[in-house]
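Annual report, structural modelling task.

Input specification for the LZUJQKHR complex:
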Amino acid sequence: MAVAVLGAAGRMGQAVIAALAQQSTVSLSAAVVREGDSRIGEAVVQMPNQQYCAATAVDWQATDAIIDFSSVAAVSDHLALASRHRCPIVLCTTGLSESQQRLIDTTANNVAVLPARNTSVGIALLEKLTELATATLPDIDIEIAETHHKHKKDAPSGTAIALAEAASRGAGLAFNRHQATPRGEGEREAGSIGFAVTRAADIVGEHSVLLARLGERMILEHRVSDRKIFADGAIKAAQWLAHQTPGRYQMSDVLGLNHALQRLLAE
Ligand SMILES: NC(=O)C1=CN([C@@H]2O[C@H](COP(=O)(O)OP(=O)(O)OC[C@H]3O[C@@H](n4cnc5c(N)ncnc54)[C@H](OP(=O)(O)O)[C@@H]3O)[C@@H](O)[C@H]2O)C=CC1
Ligand SMILES: O=C(O)C1=N[C@H](C(=O)O)C[C@H](O)C1
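The model returned the following structure:
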């Protein structure tokens, strides 16, 4: 099968193309950059034996799925493209608006869509562990911390928000992504979820969930030191998604985590 990469010249686009070069069962059909990009027609990633040239269009005949690592400004157009060409899309861009979330739902009526704010296997598992922990531990205070490189645009990260959603599902709290703002002055409000954001140098991506109750605390933590982790997860998701009927899917579906957890919990 073959995938088209949108946002191909970015940090993650390049990581996906480099990871694809090491795959025998998935190839690259198009390395798509924005109109007017100075790299059009030039190699996006320098590989010893292969040339991946930047293009502005997808070869739909040759494409089984799309992987998008671009920007919020591009996501609506990319979803429309996927819908029009009935091409499954793994949507990895973060910082999406409420209306873009609704657009994902309408696109999913036509085609398989997998929005993944983090494509690492570890975070898919950490979300489940967080939900399990908050469903189990009584009287807990939940605080989420994330650290990324200095070029990251959105904050808190998409993953931090996904972890807050998982924590609130488990704890039975009402959480809306608008509440995902760093803490200010004043005493902690019961039932609130706090966020801490750090931006520094070239840190790839780190997240932790602090679950604290009087006298004890638990910290669930995940660190990525190589973007290949995200790239490999996105490719795995695209391979899986190419065989799905229209609908909205998650990384946990790709990895079969729900079945694994249900089996464990039933024992
Ligand atoms: N789901 C996951 O696991 C992960 C998600 N991400 C998310 O992926 C996204 C990209 O991250 P990263 O690669 O670091 O970012 P970069 O800024 O390095 O890359 C983004 C690319 O998208 C291009 N782009 C921007 N706007 C448009 C547009 N309107 N139309 C077409 N192309 C556009 C940029 O081009 P130009 O340079 O010309 O602006 C750039 O080449 C972010 O939202 C990030 O949070 C990142 C890592 C992991
Ligand atoms: O921009 C990044 O780099 C990352 N973004 C994602 C997010 O916002 O959660 C995932 C990852 O941590 C890296």
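The chain has a mean pLDDT of 95.
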